[in-house]
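To the team - zinc ion complex, inputs and output below.
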Amino acid sequence: MKKGGWRKLIVLLLVFDLLLLLRLRPGLSPRVNLSHSQMDLLPNIRFGLNLNPQSSDNLFGLLGFYVQSSKEQADEEGLRIQVWDEQKGMMEMNFEEYIVHVVAGEMPAGYETEALKAQAIAARTYALKHLRGEDRCKSGYTICTDPYCCQACLQTEEMKSCWGDRYDEYYKKIDDAVKATEGEVLTSDGKLISALYHSSSGGRTEDSEAVFAVALPYLVSVESDGEEDSPEYSDEKVFSVQDLCSIVNAEFPQAHLKAPAEQIDVWGRTDSGRVKLVQLGEIVINGQQLRNLLNLHSTNFSFEFEGDSVRITCIGFGHGVGMSQCGANAMAKRGVDYRAILEHYYTGVEIITMDEQL
Ligand SMILES: [Zn+2]
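Output:
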């Protein structure tokens, strides 16, 4: 081939390669919520459809610079996730960076490092399951920042206002915990688990079936020792008889609640002590309904009637299913590592790295 012919061919191939890169660069392509099957393509897309040349002694080697640049950029960007926030709208974040923000929002930064690592893995598993489309967010997007729907996600300015002078120290502590467990997720029977967690179990976690009506083999009730010292362990709320009757009757007019001391009665508890059913005047509702109505910390509640007031004491904080964060912290204080913490709260699970999954 003539000199000019080679030049034309090289220019042509460079243009072709550039066009290919523009198509493949994640930052330049439109973002969509990926389905499970689409996610399976992600590693190939991220690494340039295996076009990355192994040697530079052929024509593709000359073009390798561009393919290599794409790979380096993909490596830098890593896996990304779209996070919906009611105030801020859609935020697109690096996946591991997102986990740092979730751990900051979901667990006190003062907790033990091994507990923070366990939290990072639970949060990552939860998020990956959403990213793969195996779990849904009520917003319709991949995942949101509402802790009642998905997972809390503290923004940098919120971390600074929460932690004040300790911002640098706490950020590094959480970032280190996330990096130390990078890519690690929980599976059962080769599938990502629903890695539920809660603040405090009050001494014993709950079967998933009792709360969500779905029995999962890895979400079964286990002991959770050492939570008593935590401020989340118990909580009290006091209502006047009049206020309590007004709240209940407004939500359930057929209750006709007038005299709580005579008309409120717990009808049954689960093995872990949480209320199954409670009689309120002329109706019976489940423990979760009353928890929601009165904004109680848990369904492990009991009543004390004192003259014109009703004292409701709750043990534990949260739904009680999966990992207890207080319990995880107590285990970490006893010298237990994050793997053993997770294996305790999620029965029979395996800890694997995400690359094996995707
Ligand atoms: Zn959500």
